[in-house]
Amino acid sequence: MYSHILRLLLLLPLVAIAQNTTDICSLLNSQLPGRISFPGNPTYDLSRTSYYSGFERALAPGCIFRPENATEVSHFIKLVNANSQNGNYSNPSQSTPKFAVRGGGHTLFSGAANIDGGVTVDLRAIKSLELSQDRKMASIGGGAIWSDIYPQMVPYNLTVMGGRVPGVGVGGYSTGGGVNFLNQRYGWACDNIYGYEVVLASGEIVYATSNTHNDLWLALKGGSNNFGIVTRFDVATFPQGLMWGGVVRYNYTKSNLEAQAKAFRDFMDPKNFDDAADMGIILGYTNKTFSVANSLFYVDPVVNPPTYQPFLSIPSLKPNTLALTDVSDMVVQFGKNLPPNLNQATQLVYSFKNPSSPSTFSTLIQQWETDIQSLSTIPGFLSQFLIQPQPVTNGTNSLGLKPGETDTVMSVITAAYTNPADDAVVQQRLAAIVDKHERLLKKQRLYVGFKYLNYADVSQDVLASYGVNIKRRLRDVSRRYDPRGVFQTGVPGGFKVWK
């Protein structure tokens, strides 16, 4: 304890010295030795090359800062402030040192969790897990990776609501909403977070709960990186033994697609709602060949549950990966269906109400199938069209969604390819496909304006999709906790509440 206090005292005068220089990286290196890596250093290179997307791997920060606790994050923020000119939330200082905050680094678009020339704050060393005495709450470091957390929960027959594939970080996932196997039963992952340890724009460390800093607590449930750096999430745990699920593949034929459309429309009918079921239709296009599969998950230990019989009765390819297993293994196995990383990649998300006829799904699929082939000559091109239930929120968030709705569908169309030279054409044509889908859904009065942040592209106005009142409230929180706009201009990446 004495050595920790002494370390903090030694840091205090160094923050004042930082006011005399703009070399944040060198100052950090002198004040927190061992936490900074520079270009050419193996630690730097390993961090930079470990992003999922080539857009993020292409960025070269001036240095990478790997703090090990909230105090070190606070010191960094105070150093940023000491080197900034005054600004405010709506007109922040352009001289604020630029930085990015990284958790898992799984977001596709450029600048989400990395930065050119500035400082990337890589939180992955803050990865602790501690269960409360009654094991009803897990305290998880803000830089932890969900697929590293799950195995630690399995011996207790518990789980937490995190990513469904390996490599997803706790921080961005949780502040963006969070899709999980348990979404239909308990809501979004962010609906089930009790508290946040947050380093504010001033460098102050606060703990936000429903009782203390309630406005910040609620804003972090969907408000992303606008308010501070979250160094610990206190989340609900849930009893979880074995679950059932996996991936089933089918021949890509008209009859199978029509059967999928009908089965999914019926699955999404509220009268058939099953809160243990989480699934998706996964349509793929790779090497000029189409594919169709289902991801079927059931959080109760039931083999071939009745809710999935309409899908399982469709003639399928062998083998499938359906099995009873624990959450940790399910995530690992599901991840094998995805590439380990992508070069250039982009995705767009939209939501809509379940239609009265399966023909709506058939039309959406046909439009995607027809239009995506126009990109077939682009080197390395592949696409995925995912159709899945939107989580059934309990309302404890800032997403602007009505609690308890079980008939909302969420779709995301992804494209990946090899060369940066093809960025513009891929992004334009993908946007055109989504625009066509949205026009159809608006015509049928099915369209829902909400955009799920963690599936969205930066070109989509996610925070506005929460509604005027919620965006106004998020701005009020930004004004209150970040009056100088550090997390607006200092952190340029992501979805900004003042844009």
Protein described:
- Helix content is 31%, strand content 21%.
- The protein has 499 residues and is α+β, with helices and mostly antiparallel strands.
- The strands form four sheets. It has an eight-stranded antiparallel beta sheet. A five-stranded antiparallel beta sheet has the order 5-6-10-8-9.
- A hairpin with a 5-residue loop joins strand 5 and strand 6.
- The longest helix has 21 residues, at 423-443.
- It starts with a helix and ends in a 9-residue tail after the last helix.
Individual helix count: 16
Share of residues in strands: 15-25%
Radius of gyration: 23 Å
Helix content: 25-40%
Shape: globular
> Major beta sheet, specifics?
8 strands, antiparallel
Structural class: alpha+beta
> What is the residue-mean pLDDT, rounded to a whole number?
94
DSSP summary, beta strand count? 19
Determine the N-to-C terminus distance: 44 Å
Low-pLDDT sequence parts: 1-22
What strand order characterises the main sheet?
Answer: 15-12-14-13-17-18-16-19
Question: Nutshell version of this structure?
Answer:
The chain has 499 residues and is an alpha+beta fold. The chain contains 16 helices and 19 strands.
Write the SSE topology:
Elements: H1 2-17, H2 24-31, E1 36-37, H3 42-49, H4 54-57, E2 63-65, H5 70-82, E3 99-102, E4 119-122, E5 129-131, E6 137-141, H6 146-153, E7 158-159, H7 170-176, H8 183-186, E8 193-199, E9 205-209, H9 214-219, E10 229-236, E11 238-239, E12 243-250, H10 254-267, E13 277-286, E14 289-298, H11 309-312, E15 323-325, H12 327-335, E16 344-353, H13 359-372, E17 382-389, E18 408-417, H14 423-443, E19 447-448, H15 468-481, H16 486-490
Parallel strand pairs: 2-4, 3-4
Antiparallel strand pairs: 1-2, 5-6, 6-10, 7-11, 8-9, 8-10, 12-14, 12-15, 13-14, 13-17, 16-18, 16-19, 17-18
